[in-house]
Specification:
The protein is α/β, with parallel strands linked by helices. The protein has 12 helices and 15 strands.
């Protein structure tokens, strides 16, 4: 069988682990296969095409991708999985994708997890045929990426994980992943765990011990600040820390400050990071435009500054604008307590400040964003309404330095 594995051409940092596992499945079954990122015509004629679609707001790119391969290989079986088809299978029920020459439909939507690949190790050294690769392509292939667990113990309303992955499932060991990963990527710079909730991992100590023994820098996603314990901090302090395989880049220990109620948890987590001298900067994803308000957003900045000063630690805040599950375009949804100007302005201001709102003990950030809530939102509003607005007379020389 000839299999084509297609990853849509998106601006993303993380490789698609599910598709890398599909490549491993093809290898184990002796299939001939190609892995393509984007829309590329080759001499390879597939019997089956796998695609994975995640965020709904990339629907225009997904439609273009399906159209391209449907025209190119009209007789191939197409199987599409991921968050998007799991939540909205009816979107794919388009007459142009149905085969008019056969009674048997060869266009399939897979909902939920794909059990055939779940326990497989991703194929790390897969050859990728890429559409028009440019300097804007951010995917890095120097990391051993994996999950040490699936699902989550939480049921956050803004998250699709409970629907897609279900209850928390912890793996007892990742040793095989690490060994095969290093064999296939001998120049790997780091290990990246894309778990949803590593702090709730049933075998937390065992996984961390394996990472310590392995010796490569680690970047762990999905640490829940409300569940972070002192014991976990003490264990994590023994790790080397890295940043998604990127050399000369700041290493982060990643949490979230999605709710103002997390204030005490952020305070406690920063105290643990300092106490055990964890070798990574404190990082928080910061959801906004959901059920929060602009005032809540400002107060999270104020509390972060207080915590930073209290412990003498940097806090890197990464605001993330909430998008509903059914958003077919990005940056259109406006939360009940928000305006488009404020929601867009925060995103543009953050981009101008090198991607973060960086809280330093000396309070330097507030010189640029405003010392009061009124000053802050006046500047946010200007960012949201003017395309080329600059805080300091169109000069980039005065942009605060971000470490």
């Amino acid at each position: 069988m000839n299999v084509l594995i297609v990853e849509p051409k998106l601006t993303s940092i993380a490789p698609n682990i599910a598709l890398m596992k599909l490549a491993r499945l093809c290898e184990l079954n002796g299939y001939d296969f190609q892995y393509i990122r984007g829309c590329v015509k080759t001499n390879f004629i597939p019997d089956r095409i796998y695609m994975s679609f995640i965020f709904t707001y990339y629907s225009a790119i997904y439609e273009k991708t399906i159209d391209f391969y449907k025209r190119l290989y009209p007789n191939a079986e197409i199987i599409i999985g991921g968050v998007f088809p799991t939540l909205f299978p009816n979107w794919f029920d388009k007459s142009k994708w149905k085969n008019p020459f056969f009674d048997i439909d060869r266009f399939y939507i897979h909902r939920g997890m794909y059990s055939d690949i779940e326990t497989l190790i991703p194929k790390y050294n897969i050859d990728i045929i890429e559409e028009d690769k440019t300097s804007k392509d951010k995917q890095n292939r120097n990391s051993i990426v994996l999950y040490s667990s699936r699902g989550c113990t939480n049921k956050c309303k803004y998250c699709a994980v409970p629907t897609l992955e279900g209850k928390m499932k912890s793996y007892h060991s990742i040793k095989d992943n690490l060994e095969i990963g290093l064999k296939e990527l001998p120049n790997a710079k780091s290990v990246v765990l894309y778990d949803n909730n590593f702090t709730a991992h049933e075998y937390f100590d065992n996984i961390v011990d394996e990472l310590i023994d392995f010796g490569l820098p680690v970047d762990i996603h999905g640490l829940h600040v409300s569940a972070f314990t002192e014991h976990q901090a003490e264990k994590l302090a023994k790790l080397k820390w890295g940043s998604q395989g990127l050399e000369k880049s700041t290493a982060y220990i990643r949490f979230s400050f999605d709710k103002i109620e997390y204030r005490k948890h952020v305070d406690r987590a920063v105290s643990y990071v300092k106490k055990y001298n964890i070798g990574a900067e404190f990082f928080c994803y910061m959801l906004y435009n959901f059920t929060d308000s602009p005032h809540d957003f400002w107060m999270r900045l104020v509390y972060s500054q207080e915590i930073s000063k209290k412990y003498g630690k940097y806090i890197f805040l990464f605001p993330q604008r909430y998008e509903p599950f059914d958003a077919m375009k990005k940056y259109q949804y406006v939360g009940e307590k928000w305006t488009q100007e404020y929601a867009s302005g925060i995103r543009k201001m953050t981009t101008w400040l090198h991607g973060f709102l960086s809280i330093f003990p000396n309070g330097n950030l507030f010189r640029w964003i405003g010392f009061t809530e009124k000053e802050f939102f006046e500047k946010v509003y200007k960012f949201g309404t003017k395309k080329n607005y600059r805080l300091i007379k169109n000069s980039t020389d005065d942009v605060p330095e971000i470490m």
